[in-house]
Amino acid sequence: MDILNLVDISVHYDAVVALDNVSLGVSEGEVVAVMGPNGAGKSTVLKAIMGLAPVVGGEVYWQQRPLEAATHEIVKQGISFVPQGRRVFTHLTVAENLEMGCLYLNNAAEKARRLDSVMELFPILHQKRDDLASQMSGGQQQMLALGRGLMAAPDVLLLDEPTLGLAPIVVKEVFQKVAEISDRLNTTILVVEHNIKGVLDIVDRAYVLDKGRVVHDGTPQSVRDTDILTQVFLGS
Ligand SMILES: Nc1ncnc2c1ncn2[C@@H]1O[C@H](COP(=O)(O)OP(=O)(O)OP(=O)(O)O)[C@@H](O)[C@H]1O
């Protein structure tokens, strides 16, 4: 059963129709990709879930109930968002950045437990826990952004372009880490990615968006077997 659903979601930025009646669903434990060319509406899907986009129609359902809370409440309810561009706090240490992921939590013991478990998953964050985030490489900052997202102990992790701007070897490490999060924590993951080959290797299912509409939904093999990506990327 789906734990997160978008039903006929439309998002308009003034005259720009970013999403046009988009429906998609994610089941518990699944890793699902959202792919498509620039401007297709991929990031807007994640923003619509988080209450960060001007939704003009449709409904987002979380665990079968309409999700109409403010963004910080959505995080508390179990959906965590790792935005494009990492957005780490460069003037804070690694540990301080991680703590920003569960600022709302008033339980020091639980905070410490989460910090330990994230650092176990990301040894580099443990190693650099007292370093400023500004001293980290792009790949390490991406690991920090993922770790910060996990500090909310989410049921669902929304990832916006986690490999953007990273060197090929680091891209591989990020995909491996995303797969590891799914395997070890059983976190449900919805990931927007431009790296088609890499992401298709780690997901259970993929949606292809074009001009604000879903044009394909299926297994990675179903995407590879059609020419849908050629069509949308070449605009044919
Ligand atoms: N804040 C905004 N104001 C106005 N238009 C916006 C805004 N955010 C997105 N758009 C427009 O909405 C459409 C969808 O944008 P979105 O960022 O969701 O696409 P995307 O598929 O994630 O693209 P990219 O791969 O370039 O990140 C685009 O036409 C974009 O220009």
Write the layout of secondary structure elements.
Blueprint: E1 2-13, E2 16-27, E3 31-35, H1 42-49, E4 55-62, E5 65-66, H2 71-76, E6 79-82, H3 94-99, H4 108-121, H5 123-127, H6 138-150, E7 156-160, H7 168-185, E8 188-192, H8 196-200, E9 205-210, E10 213-218, H9 220-225, H10 228-234
Parallel strand pairs: 3-8, 3-9, 6-7, 7-8
Antiparallel strand pairs: 1-2, 1-4, 4-5, 9-10
Domain ABC transporter: 4-236
Family: Belongs to the ABC transporter superfamily.
Protein name: High-affinity branched-chain amino acid transport ATP-binding protein LivF
User: Looking at this structure, what is the CATH superfamily?
Assistant: P-loop containing nucleotide triphosphate hydrolases
Unreliable sequence segments: none
How many beta-strand segments? 10
Number of domains: 1
At the fold tier of CATH, the topology name is Rossmann fold
Task: Assign an overall shape.
Answer: globular
Task: List SSEs in N-to-C order.
Answer: EEEHEEHEHHHHEHEHEEHH
Bound molecules: adenosine-5'-triphosphate
* Spatial extent as radius of gyration: 17 Å
Largest sheet: 6 strands, mixed
Please list the strands of the largest sheet in the order they lie side by side: 6-7-8-3-9-10
Structural class: alpha/beta
